[in-house]
Design a protein that fits this description.
Blueprint (H helix, E strand, L loop, with lengths): L1 E5 L3 H10 L2 E5 L2 H6 L4 H12 L4 E5 L5 H15 L2 E7 L2 H13 L2 E7 L2 H10 L3 E4 L1 H5 L5 H15 L4 E4 L5 H9 L4 E4 L1 H6 L4 H18 L8
Parallel strand pairs: 1-2, 1-8, 2-3, 3-4, 4-5, 5-6, 6-7, 7-8
Helix pairs in contact: 1-3, 4-5, 6-8
Length: 224
Amino acid sequence: MIYILDTADIDAIKHCNEYYPLAGVTTNPSIIAKEKSDFWTLIGEIRSIIGPDKMLHVQATEETAEKIVEEAKMLRDRVGGDFYLKIPICEEGLKATMMLKKLGIKVTMTAIITPAQALIAARAGADFVAPYVNRLDSILSDGTRVVTEIVEEFKLHGIEARVLAASFKNAEQVHKCALAGCHSATVTADIMKSLISHPMTDAAIDGFKKDWHEVYGEQKILDF
């Protein structure tokens, strides 16, 4: 499973891009609006930080297929690099996806809630489908189970589209999606950090430091 950062916070992107094996960044209109910044400046900064080889997913704001395609062309040309247009699942979105497939513009179909939506999105040409895990959990459904069913369905039908699980509130949800064979997950910076955090790990590191210090003091290997 590959990890993608779900934010437009420049400081968070800089930090996680330096310290974690990121495959890219995902955004959406809510994430972009939260930064209260000039759109093109913000997108340009993100691309500059992650470079051209990592994925950058930017969501369409238009609502008709033809306008979505226009938006996609503009974004592809100005964003550059490994670019994906995010489109919420709907009739106009499916039409736009089929049009974009012919143009060679990659699509991530988002706001996926059911395996049926995911399968149709993939058949329309989406490269990624993004099911919302925690949003399902929050309504007494099972987000991880939906991800599992989508992964199994894609295997059954020989579909090459990848599952990009989204909407997480804790590391356990990410872990369960990984066990389900999910291809990718997009997470916030806090969730990313929690994936490597554990009190027993912290205790082990503190123990190493203490034992070393008792014998060698402040010296490190480079000092010898």
